[in-house]
């Protein structure tokens, strides 16, 4: 199969996944946030007029990593069609991807906990350092 067509199909698969995941996850997280009361209420420095859902970061996290995993899966399939030098061997980058995933998961959890419990800057910094160390430790 022509490399140009494979490249276009790869981009199309990743794009469709990104759009689909975002369109699905954003309203879902909004509903979960409203039902669970995980909202930011107006008052003080907060200028919004009505309660705002706080799970948008989870929607971004899930959508982003859904795209990454689909991209890696599609890359494996495309590589099976022959020698396509523009796609890295997914097996060789998995430790780095796992480290970045773990670090971003830690950041997502720190953000959720900070939204709920209003963590101090020091506590948030400890979480961010832990996320950084996990990325560094995995290559």
Give a description of the structure:
With 139 residues, the chain is mostly helical. It folds into two domains: 1-87, no CATH class; 88-139. 74% of the residues lie in helices and 3% in strands. It has four helices and two strands, in the order H-E-E-H-H-H. It has helices at residues 3-36, 56-79, 90-117, 121-137, and strands at residues 39-40, 52-53. A two-stranded antiparallel ribbon has the order 1-2. Helix 3 runs antiparallel to helix 4. 12% of the residues are buried. The model has no long low-confidence stretch (mean pLDDT 89).
What structural keywords apply?
139 residues, two-stranded antiparallel ribbon, 4 helices, 3% strand
In short:
With 139 residues, this protein is mostly helical.
List strands and helices in order, with pairings:
Layout: H1 3-36, E1 39-40, E2 52-53, H2 56-79, H3 90-117, H4 121-137
Antiparallel strand pairs: 1-2
Helix pairs in contact: 1-2, 2-3, 3-4
Q: If you average the pLDDT, what whole number results?
A: 89
Low-confidence stretches: none
Share of β-strand residues: under 5%
Spatial separation of the terminal alpha carbons: 34 Å
């Amino acid at each position: 199969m022509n490399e140009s067509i494979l490249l276009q199909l790869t981009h199309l698969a990743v794009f469709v996944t990104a759009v689909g995941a975002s369109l699905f996850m954003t309203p879902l997280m909004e509903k979960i946030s409203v039902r669970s009361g995980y909202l930011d209420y107006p008052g003080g420095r907060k200028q919004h007029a009505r309660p705002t859902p706080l799970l948008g970061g989870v929607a971004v996290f899930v959508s982003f990593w859904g795209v990454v995993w689909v991209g890696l899966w599609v890359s494996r399939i495309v590589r099976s069609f022959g020698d396509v030098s523009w796609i890295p061997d997914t097996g060789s980058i998995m430790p780095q991807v796992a480290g970045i995933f773990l670090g971003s998961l830690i950041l997502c959890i720190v953000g959720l906990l900070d939204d709920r419990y209003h963590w101090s800057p020091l506590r948030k910094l400890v979480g961010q350092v832990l996320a950084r160390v996990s990325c560094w430790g995995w290559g």
